[in-house]
Predict the structure.
Amino acid sequence: MKKREKIVIFFAVIAVLYGCYNFFTASTSSTVTDVSKTDLGASKKLVNDLVSKVLKNELNVRELYTIAQAGKDWTGNPFMKIKDEIKKVTKFDKTESSTPVDNLAYYGFVETGHGKLAIIGGREYEEGDTLASGKYCLKKIFKHKVVVSVKGQKDLILPLMATNKGN
């Protein structure tokens, strides 16, 4: 046998011997303990102290902030990271586009083996599809934006909307 195997067997034998010792020497009366009235009184005192601290607002700043933020709605998705380039391009295009975009919002992106799908205004579209209003055509789909062409005008860039609906 190798040295490592001897060490493993040695520790296994010690574990078995300790288990046998515990099993045969332990008495049944020592495992069952009665809860006295003093123990019950001490636990009630502990619970009452904790409740009184909470009711007195003896919470630290971090706990108070967490409680205050728990009921608020998200203003944006904290897990989504959008590159600065996309923000700059979308701001630039929004200021130059003079046409109102009626209910066009890019909510999602799905890439399958057959192609890409964009969810705009609650409907799914592929590249080249005409949008529901009929005035717009989906030109290009990216993860964080879509390019929509408008007849006779500049292309619109719709950024991915950050929502917490359905979460």
Summary: Confidence is low (pLDDT under 50) at residues 85-89, 91-100. The chain has two domains: 3-70, 84-159.
